[in-house]
Amino acid sequence: MGVTSVELGNTGTLAYPSRIKLPCTWHVGKTGSRFYKELKDSCQIWGTKCPQCELVYVPPKATCPRCFSDIKEWVKVGTAGTLLTYTEVNYAVPGIQPQKPPYFLGIIKLDGASTGFVHMLGEVNMTEIKVGMRMQAEFREKREGTYLDIKYFRPAKP
Questions:
Q1: Domain enclosing residue 109, as ranges
Q2: Count of domains forming the chain
């Protein structure tokens, strides 16, 4: 297959549509580092609390996106929460997504948090999953200090 170009209107320039797979590493900063360290070392989920809005952000933020205040206070939140919404994913994302399709992604409002936490759902039955159900974090045995140290959220046992 040859390379083709697309003319960009009357600009006289061409664009070459393509997909670039580019492995990269980025610095997660002090806030992200502490968050991932807590996941790895203690299987705990922490957020940050805005001194002005009093919202608890998970994942944590160093600056409040609402009022732009610096956030210094750390708050331990629960590893369980309420499922706010979910979707079934039926395509693979090689190299990024560890689960094979179909799988569920959800937004969970963890106990003590003000915001939703996006993560994979596991051990869920397609006919039983519903908004409002209680979910519990399932941690990996071998943790590396990444978002995926939480293997998935599963339905909480009563």
A1: 27-155
A2: 1
